[in-house]
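Give me the fold.
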Amino acid sequence: MLRFDPVSGAPAPVVPIAVWFSVSLVACGAALVAPRSVRRVSVLTAVGAIAAGYTLARLTPSGVDGVFAEVAFDPAPGASPRLVSVEGRIARSIPAREIAAGSPERWLFAKPAPTFVVRVDRLLPSGGEPIGLRGETLVIGVDLSERYGVGERVRLTGMLGAVGFPMNPGEVDPRLWAAQDRRLGPLRVGDLSSVEGVEASGVVDAARGAWLRFREGRRRAIRSLIGAATTSTERSQVVEALLLGANTRDASAVRERFTDAGVSHLMAISGFHVAALLGVALLAVRLTGDRPRLEAVVTVALLVAIVVVVPLRAPILRSVLLYAALVAPGVAGRRYDPLATLGWVACALLAWRPLELFTLGFQLSVGVTAALVWLGVSAHPWITPRERFDGAAPSVLDRLLGATGRAAVVCVVCWLVAAPLIALHVGRVQPLAPLAALVATPVVALTLVFGYASAFAGLVSSAIGSVLGAAAGGAAEVSLWVMALFSGGGRGVDTPPISIAWAVASSLAVVWLLRARTVRRAGPWVAIAACVAWLVVEARVAPGGASDVGMRVDALSGGGGSCLVGRAG
């Protein structure tokens, strides 16, 4: 569907956008006059053509203005940076990563320095009028915090690089994501003499700066509270990742533990985090009685607080929207079809960021949630077993065992549905992931609840915030112990390269089996057997996957150099 223009280097459609929208109009007209058997095909064709045309409009110069395409892209890889002057607001700061005591990086001449994200809105040509330009750039080479704070408007002059090319096979093309998110290349500024503070261009611009300053101040307060309350660096990394969605290089070792255990989703902001926080808050409200209006107010207030504190990225917005769409109507006394609501939320997210369709986070959040909702709505006995009415009230132990059993079944079902998609994106499957999720989920939930409680209580009393922060640190330490228990030791299974068609078909086959409510139906098992045979064929024809290959050498790009990987046997 896409190619890259040899002159500008920007994404360009293979088939013109107008053709896709014309096909959608023809399909809509056919749906009006076609017989019933063809009507659904016509409607699906129209929807697909509209989606393709809209996606291309977002990712190509017809949707990305020509100035942005000219500044952000270059047709040749490794092109020399260009000297530019831009104006914009400092959106956020990224602290310099720490160098471990035994790391070879301690001998580097250029030590890690803080970087800054600047939202650019004007390009200043030499001797010409300012040109409107909307995008984000990462400012490197100078510490802006010495003179300027987040939210201030600045004029910068430096060398702007082009958006990078994919350097390794199978790597996501960064040019497509840059076109979607309106990201420019990195801007290297020599020193502070090339930076100048400027006045706000209006009331709206000044309000944006005030909002950025408030949000950055709240995050810094939370970071300082976490650092003061946790005595371990790993503890603080876990709490900061859970509360702020931080994805720093310093925390890579901690994230690898969660990834090896098969529960990497617990370290990333997701619907689980939103549900855990709001679930505890609503439980506290319900202890005071039946107050549906107060529950609705608390739900909205906490969702807004999460958006304020956590950087507004796709996973955060996806989590908030999914929770709000599926749970908030019930809290407000409304009832909607959950699958239809989930579908509309997915459409809204894809309208905002079309490339999210190809990410693991979107596929798991929407796909697994849809599978659980579909099975739960149909009163599946494995998910929601029917209660027995024998006249005796269940004991606390019975309720606890029942809740644990249902949670275990949900963990297994989620893993079965998600395993093909995880194998597609990660190349590794952890068989013990359901058990790890069952054990780690309550601990991570406690870390999350204590952490946010500490952040909000710190606004009132630093002493209370420190106590709750220490509790969050203790829960984070327990979660690290659980990860050490389930990670390492070769417990994961490496999977061969697979196609996205196989992953989708396998997940659908698993859902079909669960939907059948019985293991006696032959249809789902035939589909699963076909997927297994399909996997064997793909593994056989994959490069380097045949048993008669003696040795395979791969040349990969590793930052500023190359890496040769040889695999024998």
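The longest strand covers residues 82-94.
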